[in-house]
């Protein structure tokens, strides 16, 4: 039947235009020579004017990395990465000396972020909410390739003792905090990609919320890979001191390029007594084209430590981009009564591959964790949920609830669920529920008979499927995420 | 309004409709009755544009346009509505979201401005009230956890919102007890108007006591074999469909 052909055409038409962030910014870059060796590590450290201890730490990580093997257990398949074929440092030339204020940021960069819909003009946002007499909803740290180009609302936040800046600045201005916490959740020897990150990380965000302070606005970092043949290795460190609260969001995009680019980030969260960190990700790296060419390798280590009693760390992720996703945002539930949450939507279309999930390590008494993972596969994509729930002997009364749902669109994609449960305490309760479903022809026709196009129908049905997760996102981003969910699947049915 | 001429259709290569002729004028309610397997549901799916129902001959003209050339969603936007025999569940999508998306898609097609959240809410509350449905129902996920009667009433609410000019009610009475049937019929009757036509597909005369048709047709083995007024339904109820033969005879 001609319908199949038509479908193929439709998919092609849509996928070619769907990634609207695929443009490149023409800006002169300050690049490190290609390749990876101790000199490059020293080069990066020198570029950033880092203290000796940090260089030593980087070198230690680099030397350890040389002894490690790339992990192969994930259900992803890709050609061997040539680590010598990348630039490990790329910065817009103008930002050699970091701009002191927004007025000094290269207009080309401001235009880029405007195009991406990221507000870097404080005035503009302030105007929008001033009527309400409150602080603006979102402060942004913009990371372009290897450097942070601007951070908004720093002053406003400083008034409450909140530190929100690039990690490079934090290393210069708050070395005691960085030294105390960096590597304390994800040690330099943790895993292949995290160790590589320790050696060559370039920038990222740093947040410190002092005791008893509730951060009055959403903090967010917007990562953009622009230069070609570069890897982005950012580090984010968030510390929530006793009784504090912060909600943080990261977003990511990259130009459309035929080559694969590596993004190996490390995120560390530390929550002290009664502190709460809510960390949301909307990941929309370039996924590659409809034939699986190009796209970002998103190999990320994210981990939060609930160090204090009654602390809480909540991860929410909407993963729609990247050619390959390899990430397991985790919680170490050390403090008694601490709570870990993981809400995830992972959408894979065309040739995308995602192996993602979480680890909940219950150490303290009455620790609780909730995992809700929704995987959606379309095209020829493969999506895997991989999760570990570990209850240690002293975790009296620990509880976990896990729910994994997979939705398949078409008959050439796959969904896999790999849960690991280890309980070493008799009083612990661990629950796991899993379902797999397909979008039914009945549902599609029902929607179409009410006037919805097939693509709108798929968007609606998938959004319904993800609702439990999407409602966890900060309101400012939930609408955006809903649209993204629909866009990522455009052309997946015909 | 709607003119069906010598319509032939196949499902999985098997011919189900073997030359249907039917003209429906504005404001008229036609009932189609017939035994199991006579092609009643196939007719409703062919008219509403479901995939897998292939038209092999004949034509359908709706308000001067070639209905068969349109996609299902275009037909809906042009004013064709199908009330389902089994309304479908859509988990996680609230009735309001679903209907707002649908209504705005239809309005867009008609060149009307989309309704904002407030306007929409006002409208759906008014419509729900006129159908004696409570607010709670419009907030719930589409048909999830609804009883049989609630599902059918929910479809009628959708019809009230979308204001089609031609509605097909596919065995709306199936699975309903008498009280639920009355409620649904009341809803349908409240939507009857001189501009709106309906095609009521049913097995039993029972429904037609509540939704009184202007014309009744007997569909047997792919053809309309007899047409008459509302009294034909009563006659069928008494005699059954035996006189119209068996599949082999057709």
Protein model, in words:
Chain A is globular. Helices cover 26% and strands 33% of the residues of chain A. Chain A is α/β, with parallel strands linked by helices. Chain A has two domains: 20-327, no CATH class; 439-489, no CATH class. In chain A, the strands form three sheets. In chain A, strands 5, 6, 8, 10, 11, 13, 15, 16, 18, 20 and 22 form an eleven-stranded mixed β-sheet that branches. A ten-stranded mixed β-sheet of chain A has the order 4-3-7-9-12-14-17-19-21-23, covered by helices on one side. Chain A has a two-stranded antiparallel ribbon with strand order 1-2. In chain A, α10 (441-448) packs across α11 (454-470). Chain A has twelve helices and 23 strands. With 250 residues, chain B is of the alpha/beta class. Chain B has a single domain, classed as Rossmann fold (3-Layer(aba) Sandwich), CATH 3.40.50.300. Chain B has helices at 40-48, 72-78, 95-109, 117-130, 135-139, 148-162, 178-190, 206-210, 231-239; strands at 2-11, 14-24, 29-33, 53-62, 65-66, 80-83, 90-94, 141-142, 166-170, 197-202, 215-220, 223-228. In chain B, strands 6-9-10-3-11-12 form a six-stranded mixed β-sheet, with helices on both faces. A four-stranded antiparallel β-sheet of chain B has the order 2-1-4-5. In chain B, α7 links the parallel β9 (166-170) and β10. Chain B is globular, with a radius of gyration of 18 Å. At the A-B interface, α10 and α11 of A face α2, β7 and α3 of B. Chain B: This is Fe-S cluster assembly ATP-binding protein. Chain B: Pfam families: ABC_tran. Chain B: GO terms for molecular function: ATP binding; ATP hydrolysis activity. Chain B: Residues 2-246 form the ABC transporter domain. Chain B: InterPro entries: AAA+_ATPase (IPR003593), ABC_transporter-like_ATP-bd (IPR003439), ABC_transporter-like_CS (IPR017871), FeS-cluster_ATPase_SufC (IPR010230), P-loop_NTPase (IPR027417). Chain A: Residues 223-465 form the SUF system FeS cluster assembly SufBD core domain.
């Amino acid at each position: 039947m001609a319908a199949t052909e038509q479908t193929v055409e439709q998919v092609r038409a849509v996928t070619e235009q769907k990634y609207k962030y695929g443009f490149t910014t023409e800006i002169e870059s300050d690049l490190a020579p290609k390749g990876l060796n101790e000199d490059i590590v020293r080069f990066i450290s020198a570029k950033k004017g880092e203290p000796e201890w940090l260089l030593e730490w980087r070198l230690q990580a680099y030397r350890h990395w040389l002894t490690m093997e790339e992990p192969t257990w994930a259900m992803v398949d890709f050609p061997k990465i040539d680590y010598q074929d990348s630039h490990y440092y790329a910065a817009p030339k103008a930002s050699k000396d970091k701009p002191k204020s927004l007025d000094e940021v290269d207009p080309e960069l401001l235009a880029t972020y405007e195009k991406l819909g990221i507000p870097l003009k404080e005035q503009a946002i302030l105007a929008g909410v001033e009527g309400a007499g409150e602080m603006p909803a979102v402060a942004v740290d913009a990371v372009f390739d290897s450097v942070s180009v601007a951070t908004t609302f720093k002053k406003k936040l400083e008034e409450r003792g909140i530190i929100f800046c690039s990690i490079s600045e934090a290393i210069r201005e708050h070395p005691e905090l960085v030294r105390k916490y960096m590597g304390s959740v994800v040690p330099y020897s943790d895993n292949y990609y995290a160790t590589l990150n320790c050696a060559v990380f370039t920038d990222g965000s740093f947040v410190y919320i002092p005791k008893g302070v509730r951060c009055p606005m959403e903090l967010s970092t917007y990562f953009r890979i622009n230069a070609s043949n570069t890897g982005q290795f950012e580090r984010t460190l968030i510390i929530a001191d006793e009784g504090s609260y912060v909600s943080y969001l990261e977003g990511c995009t990259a130009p459309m390029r035929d080559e694969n680019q590596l993004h190996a980030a490390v995120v560390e969260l530390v929550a002290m007594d009664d502190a709460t960190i809510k960390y949301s990700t909307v990941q929309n790296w370039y996924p590659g084209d409809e034939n699986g060419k190009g796209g970002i390798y998103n190999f990320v280590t994210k981990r939060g430590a609930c160090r204090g009693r009654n602390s809480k760390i909540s991860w929410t992720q909407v993963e729609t981009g990247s050619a390959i996703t390899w990430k397991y945002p985790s919680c170490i539930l050390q403090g008694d009564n601490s709570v870990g949450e993981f809400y995830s939507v992972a959408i894979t279309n065309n040739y995308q591959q995602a192996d993602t999930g979480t680890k909940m390590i219950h150490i303290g008494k009455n620790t609780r964790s909730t995992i809700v993972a929704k995987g959606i596969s379309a095209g020829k994509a493969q999506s895997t949920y991989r999760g570990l729930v570990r209850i240690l002997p002293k975790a009296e009364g620990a509880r976990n609830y896990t729910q994994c749902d997979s939705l398949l669109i078409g008959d050439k994609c796959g969904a896999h669920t790999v849960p690991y449960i280890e309980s070493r305490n008799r009083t612990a309760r661990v629950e796991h529920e899993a379902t797999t479903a397909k979008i039914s022809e009945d549902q599609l026709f029902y929607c179409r008979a009410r006037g919805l196009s097939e693509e709108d129908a798929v968007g609606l049905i998938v959004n319904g499927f993800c609702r439990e997760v999407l409602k966890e996102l900060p309101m400012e981003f939930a609408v955006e995420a809903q649209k993204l969910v629909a866009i990522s699947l455009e052309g997946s049915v015909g | 309004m709607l003119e069906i001429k010598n319509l032939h259709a196949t499902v999985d290569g098997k011919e189900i409709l073997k030359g249907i002729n039917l003209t429906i004028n504005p404001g008229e309610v036609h009932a189609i009755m017939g035994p199991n397997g006579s092609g009643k549901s196939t007719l409703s799916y062919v008219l509403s544009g479901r995939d897998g129902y292939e038209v092999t001959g004949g034509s359908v003209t709706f308000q001067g346009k070639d209905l068969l050339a349109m996609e299902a969603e275009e037909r809906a936007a042009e004013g064709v509505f199908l009330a389902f025999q089994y309304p479908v569940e859509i988990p996680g999508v609230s009735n309001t979201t679903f209907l707002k998306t649908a209504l705005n898609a239809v309005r867009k097609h008609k060149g009307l401005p989309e309704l904002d959240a407030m306007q929409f809410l006002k409208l759906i509350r008014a419509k729900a009230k006129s159908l004696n449905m409570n607010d709670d129902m419009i907030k719930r996920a589409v048909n999830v956890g609804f009883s049989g009667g609630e599902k059918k009433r929910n479809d009628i609410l959708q019809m009230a919102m979308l204001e089609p000019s031609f509605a097909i009610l596919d065995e709306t009475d199936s699975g309903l007890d008498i009280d639920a049937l009355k409620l649904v019929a009341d809803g349908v009757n409240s939507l009857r108007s001189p501009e709106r036509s309906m095609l009521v597909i049913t097995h039993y005369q029972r429904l037609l006591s509540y939704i009184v048709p202007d014309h009744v047709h007997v569909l047997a083995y792919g053809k309309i074999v007899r047409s008459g007024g509302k009294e034909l339904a009563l006659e069928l109820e008494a005699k059954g469909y035996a006189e119209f033969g068996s599949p082999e005879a057709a």
